[in-house]
Design goal:
The complex is a heterotrimer of chains A (279), B (252) and C (263).
Chain A (H helix, E strand, L loop, with lengths): L1 H4 L3 H7 L9 H27 L3 H6 L3 H14 L1 H33 L1 H15 L7 H8 L3 H25 L3 H9 L4 H39 L5 H10 L3 H29 L7
Helix pairs in contact in A: 5-13, 6-7, 6-9, 6-11, 6-12, 9-11, 11-12, 11-13, 12-13
Chain B lengths: L1 H25 L12 H13 L2 H33 L1 H15 L7 H8 L3 H25 L3 H9 L4 H38 L5 H10 L3 H29 L6
Chain C lengths: L20 E12 L2 E13 L4 E6 L5 H9 L6 E6 L2 E2 L7 E4 L11 H7 L8 H14 L15 H13 L5 E5 L7 H18 L2 E6 L2 H7 L2 E6 L2 E7 L13 H14 L1
Parallel strand pairs in C: 3-8, 3-9, 6-7, 7-8
Antiparallel strand pairs in C: 1-2, 1-4, 4-5, 9-10
Helix pairs in contact in C: 2-4, 3-4, 6-7
The chains are: A mainly alpha (279), B mainly alpha (252), C alpha/beta (263).
Chain lengths: 279, 252, 263
C-alpha cells in the first residue's frame, strides 16, 4: 500500500509485469458453480443417448426433445398448473387441519398430565403405522375420493406437530415462569409472552416436518388412489399410458414445489426467531 | 396407591372405549361386513392367514426386499457420504445434484422406476435402496464433517498413529450420527416399500392389504395395518437399542 | 433473634413513608426426598422505608430464601412478613426482584421486556413507552431499546433487568446477588450505578451478596447471616454517595469477615 502511494498512479500502471489479469471473481464463482451442473448434464446426455439405441429403450428413456414437447403441452393446456394447484391446496389444507389439531392436542397434553395419559400411549401406537399403510383401510371406509385423501394428508401433518408442540410447551423454564409471577402477569400474558415463545422454535420445527410429510403424503395418496386432480394422479395416469415424459416432468415439479415450500417456511422461521443467537 | 393405579389405568380408557364402540357397532344388525367386522373376526382372519402360511410368505417377501434394498442403499450412502465430506472435488461436482434429488420424495420416483425397471423385483429394490441412500449419505457426511479440528489437533499433539486416530477418534465421533441416519433410512425404506407393494407386487404385506381392499376383506386389511405398524416399530426400536449399546458415552 | 433497625442513617427530609418491612419469627424448611431441611429458623428483622440493606453470608445460609420469601415466591412455614403492616401473600408489584441471571426473555427486545413489567398498568401505550425510555436512560441503556438480550453484554443485560424491576415502581426492590455473574470491573461500575439509582429513587432496597466490599459500599445496614439465622446487624455510618476508601468501613469489614469465618 505505502509503496504504491509513493509512485504516481500512471507509473504503477505501466510497471505492471503480467499482462493478463487474473479472471474476475464473479467468473471464478460462476465456473465453480457450473461444476455442479456437469453431473446432471452428463446424465441427461446418457439418457438421450439411451433413447437412440432402439425402440425398446426409447420407450423408457424418452428423447429429451420429447420431454420438452410434453412440457410445452402441459403448460399451454394449463394441465400442469391445475394439477400442481390441486396438490398444493390438498397439502396446505391437510397441514392446516392436521397441524392445528396437533398443536392444540400437543399443548393440552403438555399442560394437563391427565390428557397426556389418556391419549399419549394410544397416539404413540397409531403413529407406528406408516401413513400409506392406512390407505387400504381408509379406502375401504371412505372410498378413494377427496375425503379419504384429505384425511390421510391431515394425519400426516398431525403427528409431527403433536410431538413438537408437546415438547415445546413442556420445556418452559421455571426461571422464566418465576419472572412472570414476580411481574404479576395474567394467565393470558404468561401464555403469550413466556409459554408460546418458549414453544415456538419447536412448533416451527414441527411445521417444517409436517409440511414435508403433508407434501409427501399428498403425492403418495394421489398416486395410489389415482383419482381426481393432482400431480400424483397426473403421474399415475402417465405411468399407465407409458408416458415417461410427463412422469419426469411431474417428478421435477414435485421436487421444485417441495423445495419452494421449504424455502418459504425457512424465511418465515428466520423472521419469527430473530431473537435467537445466530452463528 | 390409588395414584399409581390411576396412572396405569388412564391410558386404557380411550382404547377401551374405542373397542367397546367397535364391538357395539358390529353386534346385532350393525354395519355391513364390508365396512366393519367384529374384533373377533379380525383375530380369526389373522389365525387363518397364519395357519395357511400365507402371512409368512408375505412377510418373508417384504422383509427380504427391505433388507436387500436397504443393504445396497445404505452401503452406497455410507461410501458416498464419506466421499462427499472428504473430497472437495466430489462435493463440487456431485453436491448440487445430490441436494436437488434429495428434495424429491422417494414415493414420487415410483412411476418412473416402474417404467424403467418394470413391475418386478427390480423397482422395489431400487426404491428401497433410494429411500435408504439419502438419509445415510447425509448423516455420514455430517458426521465426518463434524469431527472437530480441536480433537484432531489433540491427536497430533499426542502423536497418535493413523490407526489410533481412526479407531479412537474418527469412528467414535461418526458412529452416532451414522447410526441415526441408518435408522432413519430403514424406517423410510419400510414406508416406501409398503407403498410400492400397494402399487404393484405379487406378494408382500402391502400387496396383501391391497388385495384385501379389492376383495372387501376388512379383516385382512386390519391385520395388515397392525403388522406394518408393528414391523416399523420393531425396526425403529431395534435400531435404538443398538444405538444405546454402541454409544453409551452420550448423555442424551 | 430479634433485631430492630434504627432508621437513623436515612436522611429525614427525603425519607419515604412506604416500603417498610417487618419480618417476625419466620421459619422455613424444604422437603428433600421426604426429609425436612431447615433453612431459616426464627428469623426476625425490621427494615425502615427507604433503607438500603445488604444481607451477607456464605452459600446456603438461607439469605436467598429470605429474599424469595419477601418476594412471595416461597411461603414461610411459620411467622409473618409484613409490608407496611400488610402480610405478604404471594408475589406483588409492590416488590421488585432482580435475579443473579438477568432472566430477560430472549424473545423480546429490551424495550418489550421492560414494557411487559407494565402490563398491569392502565396507562396509555404511548405513556408506557415514554416511561420505559426514561428508565432505560436511568440505567444507562439509551439506544439499546430495540436490541435483543443476546446482543447485550452481561452488564448491559443486568442493567435492563434493573430497568424491568423498577418499571412497576416497587416500594421494595429485592436484589438476589445481582452482580454475582459479572466481571470485576463491570461489577464496580454497576455498584456505583445502583447507588445512584437508589439515591434517585429512594425506595427500600434489600440486596443479597457474598461480596463484603459490595455490601459495605451500598448498605446503610448490613445483615450478617450464619446458616439459618441472623448473626449480627451492623450500621454503616458513612454518608452516601459513599467513598470506597472511607476509613469507617475497614473495621466493619474486619468484623463481618470474622463473623463469616466463625459461621
Amino acid at each position: 500500500m505505502s509503496l504504491i502511494a509513493e509512485f504516481p498512479p500512471n507509473f504503477v500502471h505501466a510497471d505492471r509485469i503480467d499482462d493478463h489479469d487474473p479472471p474476475p471473481a464473479w467468473l471464478v464463482a460462476l465456473v465453480k458453480r457450473a461444476r455442479g451442473l456437469l453431473l446432471p448434464v452428463l446424465l441427461a446426455g446418457l439418457w438421450h443417448w439411451a433413447s437412440t439405441i432402439d425402440a425398446s429403450t426409447a420407450y423408457a428413456f424418452v428423447p429429451l426433445d420429447q420431454i420438452g414437447d410434453r412440457l410445452l403441452l402441459l403448460l399451454s393446456s394449463g394441465e400442469l398448473a391445475v394439477n400442481a394447484g390441486s396438490s398444493l391446496g390438498r397439502a396446505l389444507t391437510g397441514l392446516a387441519l392436521g397441524g392445528l389439531s396437533g398443536i392444540v392436542l400437543g399443548s393440552l397434553m403438555a399442560g394437563f398430565p391427565m390428557v397426556e395419559r389418556l391419549f399419549g400411549p394410544l397416539l404413540q401406537a397409531f403413529r407406528q403405522v406408516p401413513l400409506l399403510g392406512w390407505l387400504p383401510l381408509v379406502g375401504l371406509w371412505l372410498g378413494s375420493g377427496e375425503g379419504a385423501k384429505q384425511l390421510l394428508v391431515a394425519v400426516a401433518a398431525f403427528h409431527p406437530l403433536l410431538l413438537n408442540s408437546y415438547e415445546g410447551f413442556a420445556q418452559a423454564e421455571k426461571k422464566h415462569l418465576e419472572v412472570g409471577r414476580v411481574l404479576m402477569l395474567s394467565r393470558w400474558r404468561t401464555f403469550r409472552f413466556i409459554l408460546l415463545p418458549t414453544a415456538l422454535p419447536s412448533i416451527l420445527t414441527g411445521i417444517g416436518q409436517a409440511l414435508a410429510f403433508a407434501w409427501i403424503s399428498t403425492i403418495g395418496v394421489e398416486l395410489l388412489f389415482g383419482t381426481g386432480a393432482g400431480l400424483g394422479s397426473l403421474m399415475h395416469t402417465a405411468q399407465m399410458a407409458g408416458d415417461m415424459g410427463v412422469v419426469v416432468l411431474c417428478v421435477v415439479a414435485i421436487g421444485l414445489m417441495g423445495y419452494g415450500l421449504n424455502l418459504i417456511l425457512s424465511l418465515v422461521r428466520a423472521r419469527l426467531l430473530r431473537w435467537r443467537v445466530t452463528g | 396407591m390409588p395414584s399409581i393405579l390411576h396412572r396405569r389405568l388412564l391410558p386404557l380408557v380411550v382404547p377401551g372405549l374405542i373397542l367397546a364402540a367397535w364391538i357395539g357397532a358390529t353386534s346385532g344388525e350393525g354395519a355391513p361386513l364390508q365396512v366393519l367386522v367384529p374384533p373377533s373376526a379380525v383375530i380369526d382372519g389373522f389365525n387363518e392367514l397364519l395357519s395357511s402360511g400365507e402371512l409368512a410368505d408375505h412377510l418373508r417377501a417384504s422383509l427380504w426386499r427391505l433388507l436387500t434394498g436397504f443393504a445396497i442403499g445404505a452401503s452406497l450412502g455410507l461410501g458416498f457420504g464419506i466421499l462427499l465430506a472428504r473430497s472437495a472435488l466430489v462435493a463440487a461436482y456431485t453436491g448440487p445434484f445430490f441436494q436437488a434429488v434429495r428434495q424429491v420424495p422417494s414415493i414420487a420416483f415410483l412411476p418412473m422406476l416402474i417404467l424403467l425397471l418394470g413391475v418386478d423385483e427390480g423397482f422395489k429394490l431400487a426404491i428401497v435402496a433410494k429411500a435408504a441412500f439419502f438419509p445415510v449419505a447425509l448423516a455420514t457426511h455430517d458426521g465426518v464433517k463434524g469431527i472437530s479440528k480441536g480433537w484432531l489437533e489433540v491427536a497430533a499433539i499426542y502423536r497418535l498413529s493413523p490407526v489410533r486416530v481412526l479407531l479412537r477418534l474418527i469412528l467414535p465421533a461418526t458412529v452416532p450420527p451414522v447410526l441415526t441416519g441408518l435408522r432413519l433410512g430403514l424406517t423410510r425404506a419400510w414406508i416406501v416399500l409398503v407403498a410400492a407393494e400397494l402399487m404393484a407386487a405379487e406378494n408382500g404385506i402391502g400387496q396383501m392389504m391391497e388385495m384385501g381392499r379389492q376383495m372387501f376383506r376388512i379383516d385382512t386389511v386390519m391385520v395388515g395395518v397392525a403388522l406394518t405398524g408393528l414391523i416399523g416399530f420393531a425396526l425403529d426400536q431395534g435400531f435404538r437399542l443398538a444405538e444405546r449399546r454402541l454409544v453409551r458415552w452420550k448423555t442424551a | 433473634m430479634n433485631a430492630i433497625i434504627d432508621p437513623r442513617s436515612v436522611q429525614a427530609d427525603s425519607a419515604p413513608h412506604t416500603g417498610g418491612l417487618a419480618i417476625r419469627h419466620v421459619d422455613k424448611s424444604f422437603d428433600i426426598d421426604g426429609r425436612k431441611l431447615s433453612v431459616l429458623e426464627d428469623v426476625s428483622l425490621t427494615i425502615a422505608p427507604g433503607q438500603f440493606v445488604s444481607i451477607v453470608g456464605a452459600s446456603g445460609c438461607g439469605k436467598s430464601t429470605l429474599l424469595r420469601l419477601i418476594a412471595g415466591l416461597e411461603r414461610q412455614n411459620r411467622g409473618d412478613i409484613l409490608l407496611d403492616g400488610v402480610p405478604v401473600a404471594g408475589p406483588g408489584l409492590d416488590r421488585g426482584l432482580i435475579f443473579q441471571d438477568h432472566r430477560l426473555f430472549p424473545w423480546l427486545t429490551v424495550e418489550q421486556n421492560v414494557l411487559l413489567a407494565l402490563s398491569n398498568s392502565d396507562e396509555a401505550a404511548a405513556d408506557k413507552r415514554v416511561r420505559v425510555a426514561s428508565l432505560l436512560t436511568l440505567v444507562g441503556l439509551d439506544g439499546f431499546a430495540q436490541a435483543f438480550p443476546h446482543q447485550l453484554s452481561g452488564g448491559m443485560a443486568q442493567r435492563a433487568a434493573i430497568a424491568r424491576a423498577l418499571a412497576p415502581e416497587p416500594q421494595v426492590l429485592l436484589l438476589d446477588e445481582p452482580l454475582g455473574a459479572l466481571d470485576a470491573l463491570t461489577r464496580l461500575r454497576l455498584q456505583s450505578e445502583l447507588q445512584r439509582i437508589w439515591l434517585t429513587r429512594r425506595s427500600t432496597m434489600i440486596m443479597v451478596t457474598h461480596d463484603v466490599d459490595e455490601a459495605l459500599f451500598l448498605g446503610d445496614v448490613i445483615v450478617v447471616m450464619q446458616p439459618g439465622r441472623i448473626a449480627r446487624i451492623l450500621h454503616v455510618p458513612a454518608p452516601h454517595p459513599r467513598d470506597r476508601a472511607d476509613p469507617s468501613l475497614a473495621p466493619l469489614k474486619a468484623e463481618i469477615l470474622s463473623l463469616l469465618h466463625a459461621g
